[in-house]
Amino acid sequence: MSNSLLYHAFGLKSVDYLGTDYKDGAIFFHIRTKDKFLECGNCGSKEVIKKGVVKRKFKTVPVGLKEVFLLADIQRLECKSCGKVRQQKIDYADEKKATPID
């Protein structure tokens, strides 16, 4: 598995593939946004400093009869432009529909 499947099957060009898990009949792709795509969730600036990671789960389209989830490492970023600390902007999902992972 590589970034190629994420790009061609799901249209995810801004993420790196980290691994896959198969649990309870579902497929879980672990992903992280590539550094060059990180931007402030407040103002959109790319002048940011990494301040930790939170994990989120997003449901996506099934593969055959299997449910598929993206387990994303979401960066917390300090913005050099606006001074805010926010989670990165996510271009592949509705941030409000993410499920936190403990």
Describe the protein.
The chain has 102 residues and is mainly beta. The protein has one domain. It is built from 1 helix and 6 strands. Strands 1, 2, 3, 4, 5 and 6 form a 6-stranded mixed beta sheet that branches. A hairpin with a 5-residue loop joins strand 4 and strand 5. The chain starts with a helix and ends with a strand. The mean pLDDT is 88.
List the SSEs and their pairings.
Layout: H1 3-10, E1 15-23, E2 26-33, E3 48-63, E4 66-79, E5 85-87, E6 99-100
Parallel strand pairs: 2-4
Antiparallel strand pairs: 1-2, 3-4, 3-6, 4-5
In short:
This protein is mostly beta strands.
Number of strands: 6
Give the overall pLDDT as a whole number: 88
As a percent range, the share of strand residues is over 45%
Share in helix: under 10%
Counted up, domains total 1
Distance between the termini: 26 Å
- Poorly predicted regions: none
Structure classification: mainly beta
> What is the element string, with H for helices and E for strands?
HEEEEEE
Radius of gyration: 14 Å
Tally of DSSP helical segments:
1
Key words describing this protein structure:
1 helix; 51% strand; six-stranded mixed sheet; 102 residues
